[in-house]
Design goal:
heterodimer; A: alpha+beta; OB fold (Dihydrolipoamide Acetyltransferase, E2P); Chloramphenicol Acetyltransferase; six-stranded mixed β-sheet; five-stranded antiparallel β-sheet; 10 helices; elongated; B: alpha/beta; FAD/NAD(P)-binding domain; Enolase-like, domain 1; 3 domains; five-stranded parallel β-sheet; globular
């Protein structure tokens, strides 16, 4: 029996992805664990490993194909003794139940932290609740009678075809453009992705000379969907504090004297990460997520840090930041940010996290408010550290100040709780030595 | 004048233009129409609509003349050409006013004048009241339509040699008539005047009448018209028209033989040419080929933000094609999701002669030429209860399927009311139904539409009532 290699779901939000690169070609022998291809998902590029051994009988989806549906057959492995792909194609029964079995992403989510995945649908590459039918797994496929007939004739699997008709209905042209046995998307108008981005404007947008229409990238779509979902469903409130950071800056200079030996250069942000982590350890009720029937309080303090990339925003995670030294945090952060920028983060490096820091201080912003990254309950927007005139003991003095605005999910954390969290954070920032205690 | 700047300006207020404007307004665009004559264009004022009014008259007149067959006695039947034409004009006027009302309702600004492109994003309008305006647009849709073609030697003069326009408002009905050209326009007038009592000769240059229709339909129509007393010359060319005081002598060549006939009037219906002149297209990227503007599947002309729709953008020259194009071009401009280019084989065509002709998709010959294996079904009116009851037993419905896929490739009908039936197959084609769904559809009894079912059954050897 030949084995179908299916398009894996590498993240819970993924319904389709781009087959970026094949590492094997037809006729190659693959071992279990060998990287067979790279897939570009909504957030990153991932390597896919073979689970079974065999010879690559047929590459069904060519390199560079976009919009390959999860569970579509992308290649066929021949087992020992087999010489060709039966019936010329893996046709009819690709998806179905065996989906996740055949292939597993190398970056399987860590099993270490069970409770988190309940709220943050991180690990399980199963069906995300918000996404409508992607046409496989027994879901109804909408196709015109003629399209069905031609598909049957050609041996084309409708599940792998993207419909260009009304509401995504598969029509004759879609089937005619598909290769027999192929799961490749058909030509035609680009269709809205299954996880519907909220882009459809109430009013159509008219273009004038010089205007451009730029197709959404997968990352853009995810940002659009998640941010809209957050603003629409999470009741935000905002708390702003002004923190004096003279002591923090002094501590940073002192730390860097030492850290240089470790090839580390600690930034203010690294210290803010540490301070937030400590404050969250002190306020476990803030390191939590709202779930329908219960509150989920996280055991580990994992801090997501917003990183701007050419591909869009991504939030790599510094795990157990409360237990790490700032030099360690700094080294990890540099590595994560560098790999984020080239799209090489592993799944567990950006999925999960209990709290987010977004720092736009480097742009000279005094303060701003951020949108919560669900299912987290808080996000801290960090402004620039700058000298300001402040009053101390009746005297106007110059101090280095930094404004931070905390956006809070009121379902999880009330105003006073949020304020107490900020009080603790202030203590760590203004007396950094407290972080050592 | 208040507003001179618009999201969309449509040049031409015919069915393509005014429908495009309404759709644009629905989508929230600031929209204007420039129309030099009257809203509704040829279709409403000088085409589809007023001719349907005339043909209704001839239909009723024809029925009354056969009243005896229905058990009725009607004596001294006569008609008043003036009143017939008046009714036709009244119908056109009513609908043209209706279009103006639709423009107001949708807050579309109408400029009564002639438009000319005047550089990127600019349109010069010479108003009918002699004032001049420069309008600016984000997008422009050219929907200027078409007019009757004049062949050298056969030029219409409006008195003895008519185009459709004069034929529609004759001061009196001719006793004898020569119709040059047997497309929809020529045949409708031939049918009208024949029923009203004129001696009618139809001259067609190719070997059959209604040349775009299926060959079987052409042949059936020819026999039906000849039975009505029409003279039909195919493979015939009119080489000369000699005008007398109140008649015309035409020299007609059929094969090697030349004959002369003398008639009161001649109707020239030898095709149409696009209205592409004086639009300021020179120096733009808009390309004109064979008097029509060249467009891509989205109506785009190549000149930034300039589109063309309808007759001026090429065949088929049908109002409903223009309307559909108008909507799709506007929606494409607006970025509406799921807009699809026109599928030409899904555009039905109707001719309102007696018997009526309607069709969609490929003719049998065209389908064969594609090398497809076919299944062809045919069902005659004589096998349909409703047709017999109506006293309309002449005609047939033919359906053509791809034997391999069951795709409905084409449908061709001739007979009573087929112009109202064809839309059933239009829906079927648009939804990409196969013979299976058509067979599974319940058609009401007793109706003419049952023949549509029977024709499909016939294609698969399963017809019930013959």
């Amino acid at each position: 029996m030949s084995i179908n290699i299916l398009m894996p779901a590498l993240s819970p939000t993924m319904t389709e992805g781009k087959l970026a690169k094949w590492h094997v070609k037809e006729g190659d022998t693959v071992k279990s664990g060998q990287v067979v291809c790279e897939i570009e998902t909504d957030k990153a590029t991932m390597e896919v490993e073979a689970v079974d051994e065999g010879k690559v009988g047929k590459i069904v989806v060519p390199e560079g194909t976009e919009g390959v549906k999860v569970n579509a057959v992308i290649a066929v492995l021949l087992e020992e003794g087999e010489t060709e792909v039966k019936g010329g194609a893996p046709a009819a029964e690709p998806a179905k139940a065996e989906a996740p079995k055949a292939e597993a992403p190398k970056a399987e989510a860590p099993k270490a932290e069970p409770p988190k995945s309940a709220a943050a649908p991180a690990a399980a590459p199963a069906k995300p609740a918000t996404q409508p039918a992607a046409a496989s797994n027994g879901k109804r496929i909408f196709a015109s009678p003629l399209a069905k007939r031609i598909a049957a004739e050609k041996g084309v699997d409708l599940a792998g075809i993207r419909g260009s008709g009304p509401n995504g209905r598969i029509v004759k042209a879609d089937v005619e453009n598909a290769k027999p046995g192929a799961a490749a998307p058909a030509a035609g108008a680009p269709k809205a992705p299954a996880a519907k981005p909220p882009s459809a404007p109430a009013q159509p947008i008219f273009t004038a000379p010089g205007d451009q229409r730029i197709p959404h990238t997968p990352v853009r779509k995810v940002i659009a969907r998640r941010m809209l979902e957050s603003k629409q469903t999470v009741p935000h409130f905002y708390l702003t504090v002004e923190l004096e950071i003279d002591a923090l800056l002094a501590a940073r200079t002192a730390i860097n004297e030492v850290a240089r030996k470790k090839d580390a250069r600690v930034s203010v942000n690294d210290m803010v990460i540490k301070a937030c982590a400590k404050a969250l350890r002190d306020h476990p009720e803030c390191n939590a997520s709202w779930a329908e029937d219960e509150m989920i309080q996280y055991g580990a303090v994992d801090i997501s840090v917003a990183v701007a990339t050419d591909r869009g925003l991504i939030t790599p995670i510094v795990r157990n930041a409360d237990m790490k030294g700032v030099a360690q945090i700094s080294i990890e952060m540099k590595d994560l940010a560098a790999r984020a920028k080239v799209g090489k983060l592993k799944l567990e490096e950006f999925q999960g996290g209990g709290f987010t820091i977004s720092n736009l201080g480097m742009f000279g912003l005094k303060e701003f408010a951020a949108i919560i990254n669900p299912p987290q309950a808080m996000i801290l927007a960090v402004g620039a550290g700058e000298e300001r005139a402040v009053v101390r003991k009746g005297e106007m003095v110059i101090r280095n100040m930094m404004s931070c605005t905390l956006a809070v999910d009121h379902r999880v954390v009330d105003g006073a709780m949020g304020a107490q969290f900020l009080q603790t954070l202030r203590a760590y920032i203004e007396q950094p030595a407290a972080m050592l205690v | 004048m208040a507003d001179t700047s618009f999201d969309i300006i449509v040049v031409g207020g015919g069915p393509g233009g005014y429908v495009a404007a309404i759709r644009a307004a629905q989508l929230g665009m600031k929209t204007a129409v420039v129309e030099r004559e009257h809203m509704g264009g040829i279709c409403l004022n000088w085409g589809c609509i007023p001719t349907k009014a005339l043909l209704r008259t001839s239909e009723v007149y024809g029925l009354i003349k056969h009243a005896d067959a229905y058990g009725l006695s009607v004596k001294d039947v006569s008609y008043d050409p003036k009143k017939i034409v008046e009714r036709s004009r009244k119908v056109a006027k009513q609908l043209s006013n209706g279009v103006s009302m639709l423009m107001r309702k949708n807050k579309i600004t109408v400029f009564d004048g002639t438009a000319k492109l005047a550089g990127a994003g600019k349109l010069a309008v010479a108003m009918n009241d002699k004032t001049n305006h420069t309008l600016s647009y984000k997008n422009l849709i050219i929907a200027t339509g078409a007019r009757a073609r004049n062949l050298p030697g056969l030029e219409a003069d409006g008195k003895l040699v008519w185009t459709y326009k004069e034929a529609m408002v004759p001061p009196e009905f001719p006793k004898s008539l020569l119709v040059i050209g047997s497309g929809a326009i020529g045949i409708e007038f031939a049918s009208f005047y024949r029923t009203m009592g004129a001696e009618v000769t139809v001259c067609e240059v190719v070997d059959r009448i209604l040349p775009v229709e299926d060959e079987e339909v052409s042949a059936f129509a020819k026999r039906a018209f000849e039975k009505q007393g029409m003279k039909i010359l195919t493979g015939a060319t009119v080489s000369n028209l000699k005008k007398g005081a109140n008649n015309v002598t035409a020299t007609i060549k059929v094969g090697d033989k030349t004959q002369e006939i003398t008639v009161d009037r001649v109707i020239s219906a030898v095709g149409i040419v696009g209205n592409v002149e004086n639009l300021g297209l020179e120096g733009t990227k808009v390309k004109v080929e064979k008097t029509h503007i060249v467009i891509d599947q989205w109506g785009f002309t190549g000149e930034p933000n300039v589109y063309a729709i309808g007759d001026v953008a090429g065949p088929p020259w049908l109002a409903h094609k223009a309307m559909h194009e108008g909507v799709l071009v506007v929606e494409k401009i607006a970025g509406v999701k799921g807009v699809h280019p026109m599928v030409t084989t899904n555009i039905p065509g109707c001719t309102y002669c007696q018997p009526q002709v309607a069709s969609i998709g490929l003719t049998e010959a065209a389908a064969k030429a594609k090398g497809l294996q076919l299944r062809v079904g045919k069902f005659p009116f004589i096998g349909n209860g409703k047709a017999i009851a109506l006293g309309e037993p002449e005609g047939f419905i033919k359906t053509i399927f791809d034997a391999k896929t069951g795709e409905l490739l084409g449908a061709h009908m001739i007979g009573a009311e087929v112009t109202e039936l064809i839309q059933g197959y239009s829906i079927a084609k648009t939804l990409e139904t196969t013979e299976v769904e058509l067979m599974a559809t319940v058609f009401p009894h007793p109706t003419l539409s049952e023949m549509m079912h029977e024709s499909v059954l016939a294609a698969y050897g399963r017809t019930l009532h013959i």
